[in-house]
């Protein structure tokens, strides 16, 4: 990923995750869907790619999807919980 190229985030519904590949490395934001709640369970970015904002873009894509689909979000992943606190406009999606 160059400085000017944003990673392309793909919703892999079959794998229940949002994902992108950067420099051949897979980055993911995984979820479980149950009764209209997207339980965000894991965000993973390989150490070589940390600090580039990739995890934030994955979570933003997942939350945008949840909003578009009328889903609530349970931030079981600590990264997602912190992201939502830092982006108050997403807190209306949150459920316990």
From TrEMBL:
CDD domains with a match to the protein in the record: NAT_SF
Molecular function GO terms recorded: transferase activity
PANTHER family: PROTEIN NATD1
Name this polypeptide is given: N-acetyltransferase
Coiled-coil spans in chain: none
Organism: Ideonella dechloratans
Pfam family, one: Acetyltransf_CG
N-acetyltransferase domain residues: 10-95
Keyword Transferase: yes
Origin: domain of life: Bacteria
Keywords: Transferase
């Amino acid at each position: 990923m160059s400085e000017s190229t944003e990673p392309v985030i793909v919703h892999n519904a079959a794998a229940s995750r949002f994902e992108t590949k950067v420099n051949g490395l897979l980055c993911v934001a995984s979820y479980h869907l149950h009764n209209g709640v997207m339980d965000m369970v894991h965000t993973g970015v390989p150490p070589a790619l940390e600090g580039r904002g990739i995890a934030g873009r994955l979570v933003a894509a997942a939350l945008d999807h949840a909003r578009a689909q009328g889903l609530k979000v349970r931030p079981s992943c600590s990264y997602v919980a912190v992201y939502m606190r830092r982006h108050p406009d997403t807190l209306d999606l949150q459920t316990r």
